[in-house]
Amino acid sequence: xxxxxxxxxxxxxxxxxxxxxxxxxxxxxxxxxxxxxxxxxxxxxxxxxxxxxxxxxxxxxxxxxxxxxxxxxxxxxxxxxxxxxxxxxxxxxxxxxxxxxxxxxxxxxxxxxxxxxxxxxxxxxxxxxxxxxxxxxxxxxxxxxxxxxxxxxxxxxxxxxxxxxxxxxxxxxxxxxxxxxxxxxxxxxxxxxxxxxxxxxxxxxxxxxxxxxxxxxxxxxxxxxxxxxxxxxxxxxxxxxxxxxxxxxxxxxxxxx
Length: 257
Description:
Elements: E1 14-25, E2 28-39, E3 43-47, H1 54-61, E4 69-74, E5 77-78, H2 84-90, E6 94-97, H3 109-120, H4 125-138, H5 154-166, E7 172-176, H6 184-201, E8 204-209, H7 212-218, E9 221-226, E10 229-234, H8 236-240, H9 245-256
Parallel strand pairs: 3-8, 3-9, 6-7, 7-8
Antiparallel strand pairs: 1-2, 1-4, 4-5, 9-10
Helix pairs in contact: 3-5, 4-5
């Protein structure tokens, strides 16, 4: 089973490359020699137990965290060894939805999304607003456009964060637990919104999740992390049918949760 999205991975451009990446927090290794390659048009689920390094990988790709060693290439450029101004310009085609939402408290919902569009896309104001309206309608929050983050529930903040990540139609979109804590109806709306926009704009996406059923709806390929390493990297059918005991147990436990 897969995400029913187009797979353009064969012989396509390398979008993200990790080679032997190491990152620790408080002397505890979170990533210990992680290597993988993401190609243009792929739809990847980054899976693993809690605290397995999924969010750290996303933050490294987005230029928010610096690893101790290794190589990270995004859109063909070594982002660990370029100047800050060049890095920021280079990373404008990456959008990330944080697990916590990470909205600006002093801005309304509408202003939070408009800020991202103003920073990344030179479009007429009317076109930007139309895009915001479409996204907020998709996550069922059009009526909350003038509310501030403190007036929103945790689930509402997450939905705004998903809309904000999709607003600039980036080449690469990173979704950190996009449906965690949401009710099934809202979760399905968000999944469908992401899938529709990804298909329309030919985005490459990575989804970090412990929800295997959600991952199956998005992804053509699973990367399974264990103890700071890439334990398995394969399409869903291969992972499901593999002889690897850890992969089978993880998938079975996640599917039956």
